[in-house]
């Protein structure tokens, strides 16, 4: 058993259902309307799949069995094994997150946000995203030994997607893996103030950003950055 970066993730509706369950006991300033922020069409109507997931479930932990007969540069999926996809997540093509940040932050706060590495995204235009294209590309992933890279076969050639390619596409300054261990047991006034009563989830971050009246420009921008990186897609 190995973990692959192309592991099949649960539908967005499952994640939303789990997030809503964690938000039930949370109260904040303003009323919450989940119907406007579901992010896509629902999955199974009875919610059985969501109920079977553990409380601390993370799609990154999903293990996928790899065939023992795979050789380097072999396709993970044989043509006869391809999975028929169904669109369960409708991407944020209209840049709703960016629009919300621009409308929520004050002029001074937007200036501070522009000073972050994500600042130039405030001027981004709607994105045309084809989930079917990504689904098709994942069927073309080939087995290779570098866990920090993904390689895909198109025609007779193999093409790499790694941190370097991500940096080129996104325009972000990517310098390698960050050491997160130094933040594990460190006190954080921002987290203690806004997430002391719950687990930090995608929907919790969105709720906090949209409905809290921030008195501190610094905290408003920190929440905007967190909202951006967790809710953009």
Name the shape in a single word. Answer: elongated
Structural class: mainly alpha
Query: How widely separated are the two ends?
Result: 29 Å
Number of strands: 3
Mean pLDDT, to the nearest integer, reads: 75
The fraction of residues assigned to DSSP E strands is 5-15%
SSE run? HHHHHEEEHHHH
Q: Biggest β-sheet: count, sense, barrel?
A: 3 strands, antiparallel
- The strand order across the widest sheet is 1-2-3
**Percent of residues in helices:** 25-40%
| Rg, Å, rounded | 20 Å
Low-confidence stretches: 1-51
Enumerate how many helices there are, as a single number: 9
Report on this model:
Helix content is 35%, strand content 5%. It has helices spanning 12-23, 48-52, 96-104, 107-114, 131-138, 163-170, 189-194, 202-211, 217-231; strands spanning 141-142, 150-154, 157-161. A three-stranded antiparallel beta sheet has the order 1-2-3. A hairpin with a 7-residue loop joins strand 1 (141-142) and strand 2. Helix 4 (107-114) packs across helix 9 and helix 8 runs antiparallel to helix 9 (217-231). 13% of the residues are buried.
Give descriptors for this structure.
5% strand, 3 strands, 233 residues, disordered N terminus, mainly alpha
Give a short overview.
By secondary structure, this protein is mainly α.
Set out the fold topology:
Blueprint: H1 12-23, H2 48-52, H3 96-104, H4 107-114, H5 131-138, E1 141-142, E2 150-154, E3 157-161, H6 163-170, H7 189-194, H8 202-211, H9 217-231
Antiparallel strand pairs: 1-2, 2-3
């Amino acid at each position: 058993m190995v973990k692959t970066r192309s592991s099949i993730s649960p539908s967005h509706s499952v994640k939303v259902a789990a997030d809503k369950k964690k938000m039930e006991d949370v109260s904040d300033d303003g009323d919450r309307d989940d119907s406007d922020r579901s992010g896509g069409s629902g999955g199974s109507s009875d919610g059985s799949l969501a109920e079977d997931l553990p409380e601390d479930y993370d799609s990154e932990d999903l293990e996928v069995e790899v065939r023992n007969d795979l050789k380097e540069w072999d396709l993970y999926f044989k043509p006869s094994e391809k999975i028929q996809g169904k669109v369960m997540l409708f991407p944020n093509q209209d840049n709703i997150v960016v629009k919300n940040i621009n409308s929520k932050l004050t002029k001074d706060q937007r200036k501070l946000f522009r000073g972050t590495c994500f600042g130039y995204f405030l001027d981004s235009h709607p994105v045309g995203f084809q989930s079917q294209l990504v689904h098709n590309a994942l069927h073309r992933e080939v087995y290779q030994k570098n866990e920090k890279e993904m390689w895909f076969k198109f025609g007779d050639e193999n093409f790499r997607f790694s941190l370097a390619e991500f940096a080129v596409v996104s325009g972000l300054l990517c310098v390698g893996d960050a050491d997160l261990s130094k933040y594990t047991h460190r006190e954080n006034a921002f987290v203690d103030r806004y997430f002391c009563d719950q687990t930090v989830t995608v929907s919790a971050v969105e709720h906090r950003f949209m409905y809290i009246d921030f008195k501190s420009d610094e905290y408003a921008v920190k929440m905007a950055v967190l909202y951006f990186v967790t809710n953009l897609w």
